[in-house]
Amino acid sequence: MKKDFMILGIESTCDETSAALLKGGKEIVTNVIYSQIDEHKKYHGVVPELASRAHAAKIATVIHEALGDNPIDCVAFASGPGLPGGLMVGRVAAETLANFKKVPILGINHLEGHIFACDFEGTEVKNRLEFPLVALVVSGGHTELWYVKGYGEYKVLGKTRDDAAGEAFDKVAKLLGLAYPGGPQISKQALSGRRDAIHFPRPLMPGTWEFSFSGIKTAVSYYLRDHQNFNIPDVCASFEEAMVETLVTKTLLAAKKYKVRHIAIGGGVAANTLLRERMQQQAAQAGITAHFVERKLSSDNAAMIALAAYKKLEHAEKTGKPVKKNIDINPNMKVRSWD
């Protein structure tokens, strides 16, 4: 690929409409994000039909702003996993632009993007990831552990059986009457609460790398039912403590099991301050380096999609194998190795 190879990325899997330009696999030129929080706030969660309509209404404007007058060499879009309506909007926009500009198109696994986003420092790609590693993808819709041997070489160790971590934060926030999205609200309340005030369960599920957070949510619900004069900061602090302890413990146990010295944490919940502090601290004690995505790129964005596309094209060029275009949308897409 030429030095200034330009990829336009498109992200529309859930409730952010985003388009970004990545130059030479090294520099974010633009990264435009339209958030739908205001549309979904009164429902305390994402409403798929509203999300699809918002994507359709904003996608052209977002792409126009990100593209400007720049030439492009490829269009990449998130083809799954995600909400069907949003994925279709992204595909149609990507195909239209690729046909108009006469450039190739690639579909990208959204979850790969979250881990690759750990390579960004500001607007530059620093290739901070060191392999092999254990990756934790933790967001509103997904909580998964992977063993990663390199870019495009994955083994899924486990995922959530029910609620994702971010979903549990949102549901508990709703129980407490806090605003959406719930994660930041719970963390804010937790600052003035006691983390040992209430013991909520830690679903470590020994013998498996899977997660299950519906039980913690139910435990909070029962506690609120049985304690009329509950203290919101204490509930938030104790709940956050249980969630973070579960995520940190399972990730580090997987790192120990697979004998890796590096872990990567991406996704919206990776912005959680307590998770970042505990993971960094306990990883360091175990001689492991924790690579967190920067907060501003932890939520859904198109820069991570463009970077994943660049890595796929680079891999194809090095191996001489044709790149899989993967343009069929798949709401339940699983992560798979490239070869």
TrEMBL record:
<comment type="similarity">
    <text>Belongs to the KAE1 / TsaD family.</text>
</comment>
<dbReference type="GO" id="GO:0005506">
    <property type="term" value="F:iron ion binding"/>
</dbReference>
<keyword id="KW-0808">Transferase</keyword>
<feature type="binding site">
    <location>
        <position position="114"/>
    </location>
    <ligand>
        <name>Fe cation</name>
    </ligand>
</feature>
<feature type="binding site">
    <location>
        <position position="300"/>
    </location>
    <ligand>
        <name>Fe cation</name>
    </ligand>
</feature>
<dbReference type="InterPro" id="IPR017861">
    <property type="entry name" value="KAE1/TsaD"/>
</dbReference>
<dbReference type="Pfam" id="PF00814">
    <property type="entry name" value="TsaD"/>
</dbReference>
<feature type="binding site">
    <location>
        <position position="110"/>
    </location>
    <ligand>
        <name>Fe cation</name>
    </ligand>
</feature>
<comment type="function">
    <text>Required for the formation of a threonylcarbamoyl group on adenosine at position 37 (t(6)A37) in tRNAs that read codons beginning with adenine. Is involved in the transfer of the threonylcarbamoyl moiety of threonylcarbamoyl-AMP (TC-AMP) to the N6 group of A37, together with TsaE and TsaB. TsaD likely plays a direct catalytic role in this reaction.</text>
</comment>
<dbReference type="GO" id="GO:0005737">
    <property type="term" value="C:cytoplasm"/>
</dbReference>
<dbReference type="GO" id="GO:0002949">
    <property type="term" value="P:tRNA threonylcarbamoyladenosine modification"/>
</dbReference>
<feature type="binding site">
    <location>
        <position position="170"/>
    </location>
    <ligand>
        <name>substrate</name>
    </ligand>
</feature>
<keyword id="KW-0408">Iron</keyword>
<feature type="binding site">
    <location>
        <begin position="137"/>
        <end position="141"/>
    </location>
    <ligand>
        <name>substrate</name>
    </ligand>
</feature>
<dbReference type="InterPro" id="IPR000905">
    <property type="entry name" value="Gcp-like_dom"/>
</dbReference>
<keyword id="KW-0479">Metal-binding</keyword>
<dbReference type="InterPro" id="IPR022450">
    <property type="entry name" value="TsaD"/>
</dbReference>
<dbReference type="GO" id="GO:0061711">
    <property type="term" value="F:tRNA N(6)-L-threonylcarbamoyladenine synthase activity"/>
</dbReference>
<keyword id="KW-0963">Cytoplasm</keyword>
<dbReference type="InterPro" id="IPR043129">
    <property type="entry name" value="ATPase_NBD"/>
</dbReference>
<feature type="binding site">
    <location>
        <position position="183"/>
    </location>
    <ligand>
        <name>substrate</name>
    </ligand>
</feature>
<keyword id="KW-0012">Acyltransferase</keyword>
<feature type="domain" description="Gcp-like">
    <location>
        <begin position="27"/>
        <end position="306"/>
    </location>
</feature>
<keyword id="KW-0819">tRNA processing</keyword>
<protein>
    <recommendedName>
        <fullName>tRNA N6-adenosine threonylcarbamoyltransferase</fullName>
        <ecNumber>2.3.1.234</ecNumber>
    </recommendedName>
</protein>
<feature type="binding site">
    <location>
        <position position="272"/>
    </location>
    <ligand>
        <name>substrate</name>
    </ligand>
</feature>
